[in-house]
């Protein structure tokens, strides 16, 4: 199951302790058979951050040192998940992650909240800032990038929503997902359906 995650073998080759990191973002998508992840993002403990980067705190996402530095990304000390849970990375890793085949994943519901948040913000930008320029074919590169993110987020949310609401309930991954109680909440799923 984990072999479907792009760059997973490379992250495992670092030999990090299970309790010092968790996979986040699009690492979920191959597990749900939705699509391949583009890169592999992780959150790491303060201890591991100090070992790798010689500092306990970082404000920006950083690549893991090595040949795949641009593909293996460490989220900053303060990131979407720390704000969402109002906890530090250590607490999230140990209390808000699922262990699947010996690897920690931050709850899928948190990833979906990040997607919902980003999609909502990008939709506001789209409608408020550049809907007129789009009609005139005068979009900036950054605006084109936002439009692509909107489409990608919508497709991902739609596919995850349909996965959770289909006969896939017998899918191998569901035995782990049922522990993510928010994910199974009908109000939460309604929130997703409003954006797709």
Structural class estimated from helices and strands: alpha+beta
General form:
globular
Distance between the termini: 27 Å
* Number of β-strand runs: 6
Strand order of the largest sheet: 1-2-4-3
Oligomerization state? single chain
Major sheet attributes: 4 strands, mixed
Helical content band = 40-55%
CATH architecture of the largest domain: 2-Layer Sandwich
| DSSP strand content | 5-15%
* SS element count, helices: 10
Query: What is the rounded Rg?
Result: 18 Å
The CATH topology of the largest domain is given as Beta Polymerase, domain 2
| SSE succession | HEHEHEEHHEEHHHHH
Domain unit count: 2
* Uncertain residue ranges: none
At the first level of CATH, the class of the largest domain is Alpha Beta
Rounded mean pLDDT is 88
Quick structural gist:
By secondary structure, this protein is an alpha+beta fold. The chain contains ten helices and six strands; from the N terminus they run αβαβαββααββααααα. Strand 3 and strand 4 (72-74) form a beta hairpin.
Q: What does this 3D model show about the protein?
A:
This protein has 196 residues and is of the alpha+beta class. The chain has 2 domains: 2-106, Beta Polymerase, domain 2, CATH 3.30.460; 108-193, no CATH class. The protein has 10 helices and 6 strands, in the order αβαβαββααββααααα. It has helices spanning 8-12, 28-31, 46-53, 80-85, 89-95, 108-129, 131-135, 141-164, 174-177, 186-193; strands spanning 21-24, 40-44, 62-63, 72-74, 97-100, 103-106. The strands form 2 sheets. A 4-stranded mixed sheet has the order 1-2-4-3. A hairpin with an 8-residue loop joins strand 3 and strand 4 (72-74). Helix 6 crosses helix 8. It is globular. The chain starts with 7 loop residues before the first helix and ends with a helix. The model has no long low-confidence stretch (mean pLDDT 88).
